[in-house]
Amino acid sequence: MDETSVTRFVNTFIVENRRERLLHELTTPKKRYRGISRFCHRAKDLLDPAFLVAEGEDLERLPAFRRFVRDHNGPCLLLSPYPWLDEEIMPLEKAVEQAAVCPDAVLILGDGFAVVFEEPQKGGRGRFWMSEDPVRLRD
Question: Which of 75, 20, 38, 52 has its CA nearest to residue 10?
Answer without folding.
Answer: 20
